């Protein structure tokens, strides 16, 4: 948890130094509210983490977290061809707006 606070603090400091507090606030508000927000995914992970504290249910919780992570990746990459993105990362090519640069 201290690492999370450190990262958030560094983000706030970087935004303040660059005078981008408003843009950072708008970005966070769109990520944590409205349609397609991160809040539902975070709550699902927290629920599965809470289930994982029970020793008997720990393997099931980990499997469901893996499935949730896979679903989150697939749902959020609807507008991008996932195979093309993976190939671009492996080959070290730049990826911009759904097309791989040659």
Quick structural overview:
The chain is mainly alpha-helical and 102 residues long. The chain is built from 5 helices and 2 strands; from the N terminus they run αααααββ.
Element order: H for helix, E for strand: HHHHHEE
Count helical runs: 5
Computed structural class: mainly alpha
Please give the order of strands in the largest beta sheet: 1-2
Fraction in helix: 55-70%
Report on this structure.
The protein has a two-stranded antiparallel ribbon with strand order 1-2. It is 69% helix and 4% strand. Helix 3 packs antiparallel against helix 4. It contains five helices and two strands. It is mainly alpha-helical and 102 residues long.
Key structural traits:
102 residues, single chain, extended, mainly alpha, two-stranded antiparallel ribbon, 4% strand
Topology overview:
Layout (H helix, E strand, L loop, with lengths): L1 H16 L3 H12 L6 H13 L6 H19 L5 H10 L3 E2 L2 E2 L2
Antiparallel strand pairs: 1-2
